[in-house]
Amino acid sequence: MVITNSCEWLHRQLKALPIFKYPFCLEDLPQNGIYFFYEDGENWGHGGNLPRMVRIGTHKGNNFRSRINDHFLFNDRKMSFNQMKAAPKDRSIFRKNIGRSLLNKEKDDYLEIWEIDFTPRENRERYGHLRDIQKEKTIESEVTQILRENFSFKFIMMDSQIKRMGGTGLESSLIGTVASCAFCRPSNNWLGNYSPIQKIKESGLWLVQHLMDDEINEKDKITISNAITKTKEWVGSR
Predict the structure, then answer these.
(1) Strand partners, 182
(2) Is 113:130 a contact under the CB 8 Å cutoff?
(3) Does residue 206 surpass a pLDDT of 50?
(4) Would you tell me how many other CB atoms lie within 10 Å of the CB of residue 70?
(5) How many CB atoms lie within 10 A of CB 223?
(6) Residue 166's pLDDT band (boundaries 50, 70, 90)?
(7) What is the mean pLDDT of the chain?
């Protein structure tokens, strides 16, 4: 088998890992790691129908489970927001980007309000009166449904925050690898094609950071292979 580039290598290596799709138990996930999201209908470009990665991410602290929870919204109490409380999309840029595409697809002017981050108190006090909370809850529910029905993910365990995140961490090189692949392109029906963010449309990824970063190198490949072995053993022991 001839592997054409690092993107193909990465996709093939990750085939060995189990895939998680809602519903699943957060307790079955590690405390630290890097996740790889896949989306129904999106296939890679290296031959066959292997799903392509559409998002790669990680987290701070020992909060891998919490980060995944922020995306899939296991806790329904997070939907109890109001003018003076941030919505789930302000805790997950992934959710925010999906909502952006939904609103832009419908040419909905509420996109301007959706863009505002209501996590800072200053923004809540200044712009809270502009919010249509029922509309936001409708959008958030649609985002949750899309994530739960159309997305799945894999992960590799990695305890060191320095090694996994930021411009010098593995996350950036992983994103750079997939983003630079000329073969793995979005389908015509990909929701991200409606994103108001050009970087998302051009990359075919639900991401805007690290798209131009260097690809994984041979040292990174060894790190990834070791992490995959460790992850398989950990999952198998549970």
Answers:
(1) none
(2) yes
(3) yes
(4) 21
(5) 17
(6) confident
(7) 96
